[in-house]
Amino acid sequence: MDETVAEYIRRTVLKIPREEIKMMLQKWGFLSEAQLQTLNFHQIKDNISQEVVHLCEENSADIKQAAALDIIYNHMYQNKRMWSVYQMKKSGEELEYFDITDFKKKFKGSLRSALKNVTITFKEYEDNAIWIRVAWGTPYKKPNQYKPSYVVYHLQTPYVFISASVLKSNLPLLCQALIVASNYHGIREMELRSHSLNSLKDIVFKRYSQNFQTYTPKPLQGGNLEPENADIRIVQENRSEKERIHRLNQEVFGSGPQPKLEFAQYQLETMFKSDPKMDVLDKKEPFRCLVKFSSPHLLESLKSLAPAGMADAPLSPLLTCIPHKARNYFKIREKKCLFPESFVSP
Amino acid sequence: HLATSLPLPSERDHLRPRIDLVVFMIDIKSKYSLKNVETSLAHVDASFFLGKVCFLVTGVGRVNACSIETNAVCKLGEAYCSPVLFCELELEGIRVTTAQRLLRMLRICAGHIPGVSALSFVSLMRKSYDD
């Protein structure tokens, strides 16, 4: 077995938490059940990984199998990577019958025609998603297995989720291969990024709970506003205000869990508005400024701002439009008309 | 009765009993909290400041997150002749003790303790080295 393959397998196993190693090797299916029985999973990981490598040598593993194990690891720990969302564009023709083998062949063909040294691995999952792992090389070097790119393509949707490696120059090749393989005409990067792949899927497939405007002439009964204050001796003086905030929040965010995003970034290119007498910034140029909101769970924290009394309800639409517009990176420019307000560029 | 600020909503005026004690809660982690209390103080009738007002500063356990200086709060207490209590709501023991203190003050303010009035009690609470 190739030394580089052995080392790669060893390092991949080392990444897996000890309790999960057995399950992941079983999922991999490359080692037989009998071989797995011989492994001692109660020793230190260094030793476990060495033993796994020995067994792989017995079975003559090659880079294909090693890459398959890597996909399984990254599928399970997908939230460790940063994912970007891309949308493919059709020219309006009817989509032909989609053949997965055809897709794979065209994808490999397109990449290999541009770059000989690539490792391409596919894995299909039940949720109609196909995971593609690409390790990149150069015309003179073998592929670097430690910095691969991952693509998650949901069949029958125009959406692709890419976790690119550091080598940004390979992105155009990847996009080209995707368009060719899937019979689309173009691809564009959406301004939507997060660590949580499922949340990104929820946003673009509109699977999160949105609140649809329903006509309610009377305010809804705020039934579960303060469940813990069952003590009737406590009187909330601002109950109507609390209920108003709760109702507005429900309208904007819906009542279900929010998709998990970590950032919202606003690039401002607006004019600095100051007292004309102060004459700050006499050059009439836009004041460039970057505002970044970060949180372990941005949308849930925005949702709890008004009820916690930290912001007025309703919140700015710039914040609340994030899931509807499916973006969390914005450029805000000056609106050139009578009302000097800022607007969001497409 | 819990309220987020003063004045109280007027639509509930007829449902409210006599007010014996007003406790202003200031979260030491929030400058906004102090500002809100300062604005609300203007809506309190002067007669309350004869022992029926108290400041409760919460969140003092989290030393790293303090946004307000204790000096500022103590000055506020002196300006309004009202006692300042410090507590940490996240610790159950302190929470219970503080509640008990407030209840004892409330009983005095409501006139349930014979021989002790709100005014005499608050002058006892004042720090002696300030005089």
From TrEMBL, chain A:
InterPro entries found in the cross-reference section: CENP-NAC/CAD_complex, Chl4/mis15/CENP-N
Record GO cellular component, one term: nucleoplasm
Entry keyword NAD: no
Keywords noted in UniProt: Centromere, Chromosome, Nucleus
Subcellular location: Chromosome, Centromere; Nucleus
Single Gene Ontology BP annotation: chromosome segregation
One Pfam family named in its UniProt record: CENP-N
Highest taxon above the source species: Eukaryota
Major site of localization recorded for this protein: nucleus
Family statement: Belongs to the CENP-N/CHL4 family.
Protein name: CENPN protein
Originating organism: Promerops cafer
From TrEMBL, chain B:
Alphabetical list of InterPro entries matching this protein: Centromere_Cenp-M, P-loop_NTPase
Subcellular location: Chromosome, Centromere; Nucleus
Keywords: Centromere, Chromosome, Nucleus
Organism listed in the record: Promerops cafer (Cape sugarbird)
Matching Pfam families: CENP-M (PF11111)
Protein's UniProt keywords contain ATP-binding: no
Transmembrane segments: none
Primary location group: nucleus
Claim: Nucleus is one of the keywords in the record: yes
Single GO cellular component term: chromosome, centromeric region
Gene3D superfamilies, sorted: P-loop containing nucleotide triphosphate hydrolases
Protein name, entry field: Centromere protein M
